[in-house]
TrEMBL record:
Record-given protein name: Aminopeptidase N
Gene3D superfamilies according to UniProt: 2.60.40.1840, 3.30.2010.30, Neutral Protease Domain 2 (1.10.390.10), Peptidase M1, alanyl aminopeptidase, C-terminal domain (1.25.50.10), tricorn interacting facor f3 domain (2.60.40.1730)
Superkingdom of source: Bacteria
CDD domains: M1_APN
One Pfam family linked to the record: Peptidase_M1
Source organism of this protein record: Paradevosia tibetensis
UniProt GO MF annotations: alanyl aminopeptidase activity; metallopeptidase activity; zinc ion binding
UniProt cofactor(s): Zn(2+)
Amino acid sequence: MRTETEHTIFLKDYAPTPYFIDRVEMEVEIAPEKSVIHSLLHVVPREGTEPGTPLVLDGDELLLNSVAIDGAPLGLLAYEATPSSLIIHEPPLRRFVLETTVTIEPEKNTRLMGFYRSNGTWCTQCEPEGFRRITYYLDRPDNLATFNVTMIADKKLAPVLLANGNPVGQGDFEDGKHFAVWEDPHPKPSYLFAMVAGDLGSIHDSFTTSSGKQVALAIYCEHGKEDRCLYAMDALKRSMAWDERRFGLEYDLDVFNIVAVSDFNFGAMENKGLNIFNDRLVFAIPETATDADYDNVERVIAHEYFHNWTGDRVTCRDWFQLCLKEGLTVYRDQEFSSDERSRPVKRIEDVRLLRSAQFVEDAGPLAHPPRPDHYREINNFYTTTVYEKGAEVVRMLATMLGEAGFRKGMDLYFERHDGQAATIEDFIAAFADANQVNLDQFIHWYLQAGTPQVTVSDSYDAASQTYRLTLEQKTDPTPGQPEKQAMLIPVKFGLIGPNGSPMSWSKVSGAEVKGDLIMFDTGKAELTFEGIANRPVPSLFREFSAPIKLTTSLSAEDQLFLARHDSDPFNRWQALQTVATGILLDAVKAGGRLTDEGRVDALATALGETLEGNSGDAAFKALTLAMPTEDNIAQAIGTDVDPQAIHDARSALRKAISNRLHDKLLAVYNALADQGPFSTAQAATQGRSLRNACLTQLVAGGTEGAYSLAEAHYRTATNMTDRMAALAALVHANAPVAQALLGDFRTLYTADPLVLDKWLSLSAQVPDEATLDRVKAILADPSFPRNNPNRLRSLVGSFANANPVQFARPDGSGFRFVTEFVADVDKRNPQVAARVLTAFRIWRNYEPVRRAEAESALKSLAESGSLSRNTADILGRTLA
Ligand code: ZN
C-alpha cells in the first residue's frame, strides 16, 4: 500500500511552539479561479526560546508569492517554502510581523477543506487542519489569536461577505468590487476561522441576552429557500435562552450568523460567530422534512451554538482532547432536546444510536478511547466514540454529582479556563475541586477503549430477609490495549416488590450506595441488602446510567414484569427489547425461524398492553414497537455472523407480532387519523410517530391489506413524515409496490436535492438481490452529482451501513462495489472515502465465506494504488 507520508502523532510528544501568534490581519481578494490571501501575523517568541530557533508554519497546497518581516522582504536564503510548510530560519527574538501573500484555488478544492466553492458560494471549513490551506500558520488549537479580516469581491457575484466576529466596516470600489471588514475580539484557534462570500438569501431576527445585550441573528441560504430556515431560527433562539437558563452562559458578540451550504463533509461547524452548516441540517418545512429531520435541525443548531462556550471560549489544547469539546457539547445538546421534548424518548433514541454505532466501533478494529493517545490522521477521529461515548462519560459525571454539583463543576471550569486551550485533566479537576470529590479512577473512561461488560446475578434468602446482588465487570482487549482497569460505574437502580412497588432496605453493604446509585468501582462487588421482605426484581442501569453491556440472569418473566412495573421508562423499554433479543437469538440459531411461540405470545401481549395503556407517551409506545435492529442482533451474536439468518429471524418476529397485534395496531392507527393541520408541537409529532409505527408494524405482517393501507397512506400524505414512513415501511418489507412508489417519489421530487437524498437512501436499502445493480446504475448515471458528499453518503453510505444483507452478499460483490467506490472517491474527497470505508469495521465478525470475501475486497483496495492518508489509515487499522 502506497500512502501519503506515514507519520504518527503521539499525545506524549505534546510541546508548546517556540513562537506564538496573537494577532492576525488578513486581506482576502476573492475571485473566480484564484483567490489571493495577504496575511499579517503578529509573532511573539515564547519565553525561553533560543536565538536561531526557526519558526515553522503549516501550509497545504499553497503557492507563496511574497514573504516579509516588519515590512522588509525576506531574502531567498532566509526562508524555505514548500506547499506544506514555511520555515523562517532565524526570526527576530522579539515581537514582529510576518507578512505573506499566497494564491489558492477554491474552485479546484474538491476535498472541501480550507476555502472552497459550493454551488457558487465561497465558504470555508477549517477544523481540524484546513486553515493551513488558506494561509501559512501555526495551525493547531493551542495558538489563540484575535483576527481582523478584510474581504474583497465582485459585488454582483458576492454581495454577501461574512467572517467571524463583528462587522466593523464596508464599502464599494470603483471597479464593481466591494469590501467588508470583520473584527473578532475573542482570541481563537485557527480551526474556528470562517469566511463566506456569495449571492445568498437570508432571514433576520434578534435575541436579547439576560444582561440586556441585543444580538442580531441571521441565517443565509440559497435564494428562494429562506422560508425553510425559519424553524432553524426558532431553534437558535430557544438554544440561546436554554444556555442562559441551564448554565448561565450568554452570547458574547453583536451578531450571530449561520450559513447553509450544499457541499459539506459532515454536519456543521461552530466557527466563532459564523456557523457553517450542511443545508440538510438547516432546512425544514413540512413538505420536504420529516419530524426526524426537524429534530436533527434543532439538535445541531443547538450543538453548534453551545460550542460557543464549550469549544470556542474554552478550546482544546491539542486534537487528542477533541472530546473535551465534542463529548461535552453533545451532552449539552442532548440535555437541551430532553428539556424541550420528551426526556425518556430522547434517552432511548440516544442509547439506540450509541449501541448501533459506538458499541460496534468499540468492539472492532477501529476501537479507540474517547481521548486517544496517538493518531495518523485526526480527521478519522471525529467518531461516535469521541462524540457519543464522550457525551455518556459527561453524563455519568452529571449522574454522580447531581444537577447542582455538575453545574458547580461547569462554573469552575469556565472560571479557570475561559480564553484558554484546556485538557481532559483540567475538565475533571474542575468537577473534583468544585465538589470536593476524588475522580482519579473516573478518568479511565477517557483513556480506555472498549465497552465494559457487566454481569449480574442475584439470590434471595427468605429466612434472613436478605437479598444479594453480585456485579462483575470486564472490558475486552482493544487494539493496543490488551489489559483494562476496572472502571467507576454508576449503577442507577431500584428493587421492585411482587406487587410492582419499590422496595426499600434497612441496610446495604458490599459497595458504596448513594441514594439510588451503586458506585461500582471494582472488578467484582457483592452487595447485601437487609430487611427485604420478599424476593425483589432488580431494575439496573435505570436511564442507562453507564455505557455498558449488561447481562443478567433475569428470566423472560422477570423482564416482562419490569416492562409492566418499572417506574423508569428506559428500563420498561429495555425489558421489552431484552425479551425480543432473546427470541431473536434463538431464531437465528434455528436458521431464521421462531422456536418458542409461547415467548412470542408473551412479548406480543406485553407490547399490546403498552400500546393500549397510559403509561408512557405516544412516542415511547412507538419506540417499544421497533424490534432490535439487524445490527443489534449481529452485535449480540458477536462472531460467525450470517446476516441473512438475522434478517429472516427479525422478519419472522416482526410478522408474528404484527399478526398477533393486528387489530390493536389498526385501531390505534385509525384513532390517530385526524391530525389536523401540520404542527411541530409535541402532541402532533408524537401522534405521527405512533401512528406511523403502527403502520410500519402492520406492513411487517406482509399482508395485501397492510400494503394497500400503506400505499394509501403514502398517496394521501400531506407532509414528508407520513409519506416517508409509508414508503420506508414498504421498502423495508420489500413489498411488490415498493419499486413503483420509489419511482413515483423520485418523479415528485427531482428538483429537491435533499429529498432526492431520501430516495437515494431508500433505494439503497431495499432488501433485494437487484439492489446492488440498481445502486450501480444510479451512480453511473451522468447526471449523478459525483462530488456532493450528501448524495454519495445517501446512496453508498446507506447501502454499506443500512442494507446488511446486500452489502454482505456471500459472493462478495457488495463488498467489492464499496471498496471500488472508495478508491475512486478517495482521489477527490478523502474524508468521504474514509468514512464510507468504516462500514468494514465488522468484517471479522462474519461467517467464514463472507469474511474471506470482505478480506479480499479490502486487500485489493490496499493494492489498488495510492491512497490518501485518511483512507490508508482506516484501511490499515481495519486489516490489522
Ligand atoms: Zn461539535
